[in-house]
């Protein structure tokens, strides 16, 4: 396989499909040249193969010869030679990975200029100023980008020169001064690197190519890939292209153009251009650009030609395109094109519009495929509308949406300030159930500790409230916090974006959350596509959340966590009474109080989800979660002393204390140790169902046993549930009882349950994969512990391709899920299968779950639209 | 299938192989009757099928009819009828499960007596006193055992009667008094149960049979099965047998006999008998028994007959037998036989002796198969030689061996008392590395918290020191502890048995630990059998332990835990310096100090294990294990204040604190975050190897990476190791370097590593299964947290058949091991495979590991002989 391909190379497949090999930019240049026949300056692409070979074993053998051959071909096509003292060919060198990637080396222009060829350029263009300006630009660009020198080293002499010449704008600097500047720039390079500025264009080219290759592993590029989930082993391609100049004269110019508006999605051209300028000037924003429509008057023929190209591009790519172009002395050149990035609003509008396009159109399946999860997030939640002026830190993006408010450092303070009408951000090390009133009152939540399943994160997501958690750089001390050198006091305004994890000082302008009408259209189409293939449910723990989830299109509840019912302020004392009970009678009495409370909760949920399935998970967390911490009580004991009740709480907390609560007495194990607990919960649930029935409702109840490891365990628990159901139903007229629809199933969240799914299915009507815990146990990763420094190190070093808590680890955890599906269905072909871990809302994981044969996914209410879309995309992708 | 079988039923297979169906007792009675033709009173067995059917669905249909048929057959054989007023047939009813099982209903004798038949018995025997004594014995036995009445209800009238009669011994009580006693016993039954004593023999029989069935699920029986790992679903058989009477006259008697001495294993008969007595009298120890040899003079013909039977039994069973017999008026009856229980010494001696028996002999394979792990434990460790007079509690049996000493409550106090020459037991809530001096000084260790992998347990096992841990009933308060109502003060003598978990007040006599010569013989034979099939290594962390392990026959080290090297008193401050380091230079300096210390440790280990493989696991535990606890420091901060150093320690402890340390930043994750750490350890190890080489030794080093989850991770770590090896070896002459034998491999201890073993094997020369952690993660069981109340509940309720930390869970964890073996060897056929979890010393698990194809097991040094034996047994069992 060759390492290099000319833009006009005849590939066997359309070049736009060869982005793996040619990178995105190279593929599109080849597509425009060899397929569309558009006016593209000739050039060639050095493939990603070459980059990977270089990164593994240094400069690849034979690459020099190939490049020399391509350069000769290019010289022939252009009728000029690189470094020619009379009429030099100049080239640009640009990186171009499969995915657009900031942080990598970007562009070196005017490569091929040296002390001799600059004269040739001056002669050929009869413009000495232009030639030396190009030369000094090239030296500084090469110095900065290829040699890694500080840009200021070049800015200073330029400013000096302007002062000396007594001029203000760059354009006024004369040719002589620019020639001198080129000389001093060369001295800067020699002084800083110990090597003279390379004069041989072949050396310049190789230096630039190596710089592109090397930049693949630059810190910013690596961090970007981690964030954007781009594999580290793709490598980048390099594009070498003949230069054209938009800065030759006033009959020249350069611009960027979109085939329609990337912000609103509106039809019609959109973009900016500059007369007599190079591309970098447009991007740099040094001069005020003109709107693209101004071309119509200024260069009517060019405008017409460009609009023709836009139409052809849209038709060819069947999507909105983003282009760069240059006009050199009246001739239009296309420098780049790609399918353009767009806002969420625009994505929705374009997708719908393009199904009704004249001339060409996309199908509804394609339209659904054009909208990404991020697009929906954008229209569902406010976001930062501008780059924050003073970014403080980045934490974990725990719950999407942006918020602005005054910082308060305790739930009480936050609630009090909100009472006064203030917009509040709650800032705290971590939250607990006792902080819930403050969290409700706040616009957003910022914590310095905890991971994406910490209390703050889980609760915020459930409410759709913006949250950034685990912001480790935030050091809270009393009523202020410091980040780096900045201190933020109570009442200072901060902004946070829970979709990006950014935290900023002061007020950042926010976009509005306003789903356009196309939102509904696209989701309707998505639902039609996935209907009967993959259902979407929501995780919701109370009536309002359930109602909210239904609004978002949830087709049932996949996970109702009953522990949240235990944590409410008015319930916790009862739960503690149950734990502290000295006699069975006391325990019974406490359980009875809880039953009454839980029943009311269940009635509300079943009502909100009438005629849709509601999966209720019996109590799961270890009991000490309902007790104060031992540390707290021991500290109080040592300092202020304890009340008698506190002494009892301390003893209980010590007795239930666990070294690794994640792997302790929780889930069905609690049921084994306190069987009355589960019976009480099922009684409350069934009584609620009966109440709904009697009110004319259609309750559909699924009782779920958590943390099963053996068939025997599930058999025992199933017995309790069935007995309690029979007990409640036994009192009913048969006619009513027959309408009750109750399934009994289990979470599959331990590796053992997955391995022994065949046995466990004997006792289960359904499985719901708890992929959070399954991931924790399969990897041995406690999410709260590893999600900070460890996960970052693992992702940056490529030890993990993805954070397995965000996207399911298909090879490991996913293998266990697939095995369990196979084992479970072998025993019970009609076994109902779903997932209720956080992965249920992740598009890539949803695709996996669809492929292994699950019946539904369940996620937080605010994530339901994304899951509906992703489910449809999974169906489309796996016909 | 019938539910009942007469003893003379012609089974298709030898009855002794039908213990599943007939129970042990029934099978042996049938064997003696139908195969050996010995004089056995006729009878029949109600099978375990009937018991299981009864326990599931009540009294089985058709069973009554079958029993009636068997009774008629028995009546015909004996020429008597049950309940006959003239000449009644009497029967015994005995339980008999597959495995001998205390806690179940044992025996009801004389069944068939009632107000009428007692007269017939009196007439037939011409012995009214005998008849009424038999009747009143029957009523009280039935009352106690079948009806569950308190024995005291019957003792009181008897004592009264003796007082009234003015006699002292039972034998002096006359026939009239006994007749009255029978009447008052019947009143006791009627008063206590509200029902008259059953007069119909068929009712009596059914009652007794139901009582046997029901006793299968009695609390003591269940607890016994949990302890002895007997499945709960076997059920028991019931044996109904015609009575013979050893208490008819002085020409009668009863006894128990062993075909050789079950205590020493010496050849020749052994046992006790009583003239004119019933079996229960021998067992009850009411009268002084005569040695079996006395039969020779008293009943020479019977003695000769019995010795003939003994010889036939030994030849038939090819093992030592345990028998019960009765002489009724000069005729010998065999009531029971079974292969006899024996002490460890006896087991070893018999096994060796029987390979050289005249007439019949066993093979060496059989001899090896005859010795159990418990037998070796007995000869390797002292044990309680008597039942403790005052048992305080039972904790977890953490390290076998018994010890007696004075209780001390801190490591310092224990060490000081030991210094004064006292035998000491250290009693503490839990131990930490700072208590090691006190643990060394003690005879045994008792802790009130922690599981079988707690610090105390692990350290004690490594030293072969008796330990009972997690004795939750022990409440320590200052220098005393209470258990129930008893308080034990400092200096009070207590005894503990780390093999049974028993803790007793006062001195309990101990057996000596003294392996007889046959110990060596059996292990030599075992080694010959397993040679080349399954090797045995030891887990050892320092030179003396390694030397000790080699003495016990270890063929290398399967796990050298380098963290123990970090915990020594003189190392911990250096480790903390490393953790607290503010600059890379400080960290480097601390690592360098550690390197020097570790190198010396490695030299000692490699020397002790010269020319045998030594697997060194790089640092595994989370760093906070080397820091003081946050609770402790925070408490001190709140009360006394902290020094500056302590403030730093607190900050570090908080920063490294984890919610679930088991699933946190440990193992290779530490290496990723602090790569210098692993490089230092490998450098120390390789320098030690070089030193050994230069001293003429043959170091064989295996470097093991802990907690791997991905191939990438292992590839990275392998790189560090290989680089450091290359760096150290690079300085050596090639001739020397070539002699260095270094393998690089990984623990497989996360479910993910097992699932992705195919990939991971690409980077591994060997796998060592860490089945402790693998079990924890596969089940989601934190051993420290679940091993107390939860595990007990699970075993008692049959939710788990075995404690999966003691014997590997073949269906779940074992399936992952088997998958990993397959995956690993598919990638790398020569992959070396071992296990270094605690299961490596468990015989049943060893059998499993042999079957799935591991190359070696590794266990604590004191467990090595057991593992050698078990490995040979595995080879024999899986030809």
From TrEMBL, chains A, B:
Domain PEP-utilising enzyme C-terminal: 532-874
Cofactor(s) required for function per UniProt: Mg(2+)
Entries under InterPro entries matching the protein: ATP_grasp_subdomain_1, PEP-util_enz_mobile_dom, PEP_util_C, PEP_util_CS, Phosphohistidine_dom_sf, PPDK_AMP/ATP-bd, Pyruvate_phosphate_dikinase, Pyrv/PenolPyrv_kinase-like_dom
UniProt catalytic activity: pyruvate + phosphate + ATP = phosphoenolpyruvate + AMP + diphosphate + H(+)
ATP-binding listed as a keyword: yes
Domain of life, source organism: Bacteria
Domain PEP-utilising enzyme mobile residue range list: 422-501
Pfam families: PEP-utilizers, PEP-utilizers_C, PPDK_N
Entry's EC annotation: 2.7.9.1
GO molecular function: pyruvate, phosphate dikinase activity
PROSITE patterns, per the entry: PEP_ENZYMES_2
Family designation: Belongs to the PEP-utilizing enzyme family.
UniProt protein name: Pyruvate, phosphate dikinase
Native organism: Acidiferrimicrobium australe
